[in-house]
Design brief:
Blueprint: E1 4-8, E2 11-14, H1 15-34, H2 42-67, H3 69-74, H4 82-86, H5 91-109, H6 113-138, E3 152-153, H7 157-163, E4 170-171, H8 174-192, H9 201-217, E5 228-229, E6 234-235, H10 236-253
Antiparallel strand pairs: 1-2, 3-4, 5-6
Helix pairs in contact: 1-2, 1-6, 2-5, 6-8, 6-9, 8-9, 9-10
């Protein structure tokens, strides 16, 4: 675990932020490159990607605050503190906020949202896989204690002070579980291709695969602030994962019921 890559005077460069930024930029670049295969304008895809990223960062922070509202209600000054701004936030909060932006942008620009989702699916999974490696470096999103031989022991007091990482205790490397599973998802989504299937099926596959990924990894997570339900039997994130699985299955099978219609393949003029 290396939460800090290096320091230059007062500037601290964190591993999590660096890997997250790299994953985001790589995902944007890939989505732009894949746009023509889906009959979409590459500039529109890039611009929408930027809007979604900004919205996702804000949405992840808002979900983080509401997930731990009992703390922030007693310490309202922490909402705008540097530690809160540095925190990555809640992934599902960011994902759902970005999905809302995609839907309304698609309606305003008269673009097929399902095709847009197909384009972003594999790049999003890849960016997320890289970002989870950053989580591992930072020590956040850690797992429950374990006796398995692959349990990891964190020793960074900096990470402990920053995100509460338990030290000296073997933990499930949940960050690596999710990252590895997401890399597999990336491979599967790229194999599906673009323009070869009914519009929305790749998006559906992403939703199904990631819902399954996160819902399973949640059983091994040990970090607080995930809104546990039923006396701690499962988390709110697993409820959202189930919804995502059902949505993904619907998107995948809807062409069989005549729901999906061919979308226009000729993109309009690029706009900002």
């Amino acid at each position: 675990m290396h939460p800090v890559l290096f320091r230059v005077g007062p500037l601290t460069v964190h591993a999590y932020g660096t890997l997250l930024a790299f994953g985001i930029l790589l995902a944007l670049w890939l989505a732009q490159r894949r746009a023509p295969a889906a009959g979409l304008d590459a500039d529109r895809v890039w611009n929408l990607g930027v809007y979604m990223i900004l919205a996702a960062l804000a949405g992840a922070k808002v979900w983080l605050i509401f997930a731990d509202w009992s703390y922030y209600r007693q310490h309202p000054g922490e909402i705008f503190s540097w530690s809160t701004l540095e925190a990555g936030g809640v992934w599902y909060g960011g994902l759902l906020t970005a999905a809302v932006i995609l839907f309304f942008y698609a309606r305003q620009a008269k673009l097929p949202y399902s095709k847009l989702g197909d384009v972003y699916a594999a790049p999003l999974a890849l960016g997320h896989a890289i970002g989870r490696l950053g989580c591992f470096c930072a020590g956040c999103c850690y797992g429950k204690p374990t006796t398995m031989p692959w349990g990891v022991v964190f020793t960074s007091t900096y990470a402990h002070d920053l995100v509460g990482t338990p030290l000296g205790v073997p933990l499930h490397p949940t960050q690596l579980y999710e990252s590895a599973w997401e890399f597999v998802n990336v491979f599967l989504l790229f194999r599906l291709g673009l323009g070869k299937r009914p519009s929305g099926q790749v998006l559906g596959a992403y939703a199904f695969l990631y819902g399954l990924t996160r819902g399973t990894v949640e059983f091994f997570r040990g970090d607080p602030g995930r809104t546990m339900l039923a006396g701690g039997e499962f988390s709110l994130m697993q409820v959202v994962s189930l919804v995502l699985i059902l949505f993904g299955a619907w998107m995948w099978f809807r062409p069989r019921f005549g729901v999906a219609r061919p979308a226009p393949s000729s993109p309009g003029p690029a706009t900002a």
